[in-house]
Amino acid sequence: MDRPAFDDIFMELAVNLAKKSHCIKRHVGAVLTKDTRIISIGYNGPPAGTHNCDEEYPETGCPRDSKGGCSLAIHAEQNAILYAVKNKATVEGSTLYVTLSPCLACARIIYTAGIVKVIYLNSYAAHKGIEQDEGVDFLSKFGVTMEKYQGQISHVTDLI
């Protein structure tokens, strides 16, 4: 029997979690792990207890903030980190698997939380049509290991 690597398992889970997102613009999933164990998961969307963007604003998505970003969205990696901290899990020294490389704001949170490695599937810069992955650059500069996922996801029907 061919056994999948943990990187493949965790990235596949992140891709499947992205399918839970209610954002109409982009679906992103994240898995936070430590020592081959999952300590938290997350996907992008509005804070728990508010409304889902695809239900409240099905045509346009949520209103934009002053910088053009979603006014309600919490990014997948933020959700994973917040949930872990809320449940008193230690995130320091952990690895984050995410379907979209972190934006600069998320990179700052990842660094401050003590996450030591990020494995990402797709480029935030390519998604946004900008030249550089500022979050990847920031994390790399300050010693967080950054890896573009190169493995194989075998049970996912489509990548979001």
TrEMBL record:
Entries under Pfam families matching the protein: dCMP_cyt_deam_1
InterPro entries per record: APOBEC/CMP_deaminase_Zn-bd, CMP_dCMP_dom, Cytidine_deaminase-like, dCMP_deaminase, dCMP_deaminase-rel, Deoxycytidylate_deaminase_dom
Domain CMP/dCMP-type deaminase: residue ranges: 5-132
Keywords on record: Hydrolase, Metal-binding, Zinc
PROSITE patterns listed in its UniProt record: CYT_DCMP_DEAMINASES_1, CYT_DCMP_DEAMINASES_2
Cofactor: Zn(2+)
Top-level taxon in the UniProt lineage: Bacteria
Similarity section: Belongs to the cytidine and deoxycytidylate deaminase family.
Name assigned to this protein: Deoxycytidylate deaminase
Source organism phylogeny: Bacteria, Pseudomonadati, Bacteroidota, Cytophagia, Cytophagales
